[in-house]
Specification:
two-stranded antiparallel ribbon; Pdz3 Domain; alpha+beta; 6-stranded antiparallel sheet; elongated; 8 strands
Length: 394
């Protein structure tokens, strides 16, 4: 039953996120007088027509509950009625831009409301980012250094673990020695030790704490290395840690968190693409491909969350992060995505300003979007296969 309810929960959450995304397109289209032919939840074939409003818009439910769409008049440059007043193509650049980007904006707004509400009632970080190095810091998924700084993680010095036969081991460094200082300078971060070792070519006095007390170990680096793992000696991860702010501050922190989570998602996406197409080592590509996940992985995640009986706030927080991921992904300048459509809109605008030729040929743009959509479908199939393999052979 946990599997059933986990999959159902994933479908409900994904449907809600998609609903708000499509509601953005829908509301902006209605605001600017664009005729909306259909507002659909799920991917066709159509299961049921729920309602039809006075303007002729039909509201439908479709059989594949993993997406949604808004079908508007004049979306395609070569369709009938493109130049009618109620066509999207007949609207000015700013109005078309608002309609195209409104879905993504709703994704970010959805996450912003959740973050702000959680900061108001109190929320603990979802986890600590120890896997990916990013330039962006977030409150709800802090880096390890940030977790130490805010007091989420308590440490007691820097722990060493020398490799067998390494300079560190031969010099007398023992497994689980706690580094206190090097040449009289207190070391509080692993990065400080690494930087100091890299700069030295002479013997350095490591003062370490061990079960027998404190001792000094002379170590001489070679090529800026001593051959030892180094990290924080974690003594406690606080279970009672919470962020909680007043109303105004919660709204401010919600906006900051939405921006930072979006920036980190974009940064991680860029790193993922780089590791797949230009890896430094073959293992990087393999790890990157294995890290891909789609709707099946999300469904499996919610099954695990229900099985672990996590708090409802965790599920709500994950929904906000999924919404941000969807928003960032849709902003990419790739054909068939909102970002790709916006790029073509900018191209049309530029052609209209700098050339007598008003637009690209409608057929060309249509074929590019079809090709982009086809590639996305192939990617979705590949990711789904990866998800299934990971679930079966985990």
């Amino acid at each position: 039953m946990t599997i059933f309810f986990g999959i159902l929960l994933a479908l409900v959450i994904f449907s809600v996120i998609v609903f708000f995304h499509e509601l953005g397109h829908f509301s902006m289209a209605k605001r600017f007088g664009v005729k909306v032919d259909e507002f659909g939840i799920g991917i066709p074939p159509r299961a049921k027509q729920v309602w039809q409003d006075k303007s002729g818009t039909i509201y439908t439910l479709n059989w594949l509950p993993i997406g949604g769409f808004v079908r508007m008049k004049g979306e395609e440059m070569n369709e009938a009625g493109t130049h009618d007043k109620d066509s999207l193509a007949s609207k000015n650049f700013w109005q078309q831009s608002a309609v195209i980007l409104a879905g993504v904006i709703m994704n970010f707004l959805f996450a912003f409301v959740i973050f702000s509400a959680l900061f108001m009632v109190g929320v603990e970080p979802l986890g600590i980012n120890t896997k990916f190095q990013t330039q962006t810091e977030t409150k709800l998924i802090p880096s390890f250094d940030e977790a130490v700084r805010i007091g989420l993680v308590k440490t007691d010095g820097i722990i060493l673990s020398p490799l067998t036969g390494s300079i560190a081991q031969k010099s007398g460094i023992l497994d689980n020695d706690i580094l206190l200082s090097i040449d009289g300078k207190t070391i509080s971060k692993p990065e400080e030790m690494i930087a100091k070792v890299k700069q030295s070519t002479v013997a350095m006095n490591f003062v370490v704490r061990w079960t027998g007390g404190v001792r000094t170990v002379p170590v001489t680096p070679e090529n800026g290395k001593i051959g030892s793992y180094v990290g924080y000696n974690v003594t406690e991860i606080r279970k009672d840690f919470r962020y909680r702010y007043g109303v105004i501050e919660s709204i401010q922190e919600g906006a900051i968190e939405t921006y930072n989570q979006s920036a980190m998602t974009l940064e991680l996406l860029g790193s993922l693409v780089k590791r797949i197409f230009a890896p430094r080592l073959p293992s990087e590509r393999t790890e990157a491909v294995q890290s891909l996940g789609g709707p099946i992985a999300i469904g499996n995640l919610f099954v695990n969350l229900l099985d672990a009986k996590v708090a409802s706030s965790v599920i709500i927080l994950i929904a906000a992060l999924i919404s941000i991921n969807l928003g960032v992904f849709n902003l990419l300048p790739f054909p068939a995505l909102d970002g790709g459509r916006f790029v073509f809109l900018v191209i049309h605008r530029a052609l209209g300003i700098f050339s007598k030729k008003k637009t690209l040929h409608g057929k060309i743009e249509q074929y590019i979007h079809i090709a982009g959509f086809s590639l996305l479908i192939l990617l979705s199939i590949f990711v789904a296969y990866q998800d299934i393999v990971k679930i079966i052979f985990r």
